[in-house]
Amino acid sequence: KRSPRDSLRRVRALVEDGATVIFTDGLPDDVPGFHQHDERLAQLMELLKPFAGKSGDVPHGKGHVVVNPASLAKELESRGNAAESMVTDGLRFVRRTHGDGFHYFIANRGAKRFSGKIRLAVPFRSVVVLDPWSDASARTPETSGSTIQLDLEAGASCLVRTFTDHKVESAPVPEDVPTGDALAVTGPWTIDFIAGGPTLPASRTLQSTGFWT
User: 93 with 147, same domain?
Assistant: First the structure.
């Protein structure tokens, strides 16, 4: 609820230049600190005068100030800033623009493999998935909207490149579809040390596998 006078002056200049600023919990009503408090507060109120007592979308200059939107998520989406739903699946991302669309760096930070469809928040005509480990690239199957198929092991990452207006030619991304029940590979396991030195450990039998270190 407190805002430095100079910070709000810069915010207002951005709005007058065409930016949209959203206040989700009302306008500031005080300034921080006690030095020349009344003078700085009066200047703050003067800067806020065009928006005081208003709610919703308030046009100002070339931009807009939105005060107390009913839903922040819907407000952002209506202005072309939809949330990326992949984060609810345990995926993390960085998004950057390029000349024909967007680049995504997507990482599976969860403990389990992810396999499924994700919806990107940006529109596209085609998408290419790039594997940074193998240097392989593949086109995602054509789908409606902004949904793509993605398969990432736990700890794995990939690059996704979207193209807004044109179709790219590349092999399609293979979808991993289970063909039956998982087969458990059980022991016992025999370990033989066949090379190395100066001496070799004796062979041994394990009932289950585990980390070596």
Answer: yes
- For residue 33, the enclosing domain spans 5-78
Q: Mind listing the pLDDT tens digit for each residue in 115-160?
A: 888 888 888 888 888 887 766 665 665 554 578 888 899 999 999 9
The predicted model scores a pTM of 0.57
Q: How many residues does the chain have?
A: 213
pLDDT at 84 (0 to 100): 87
Domain contains 18: yes
Distance CA 47, CA 31 (A): 12
pLDDT tens, residue by residue, 152-200: 999 999 999 998 888 777 666 556 666 778 888 888 999 999 998 889 9
Measured between alpha carbons, how far is 128 from 109 in angstroms, rounded to an integer?
21
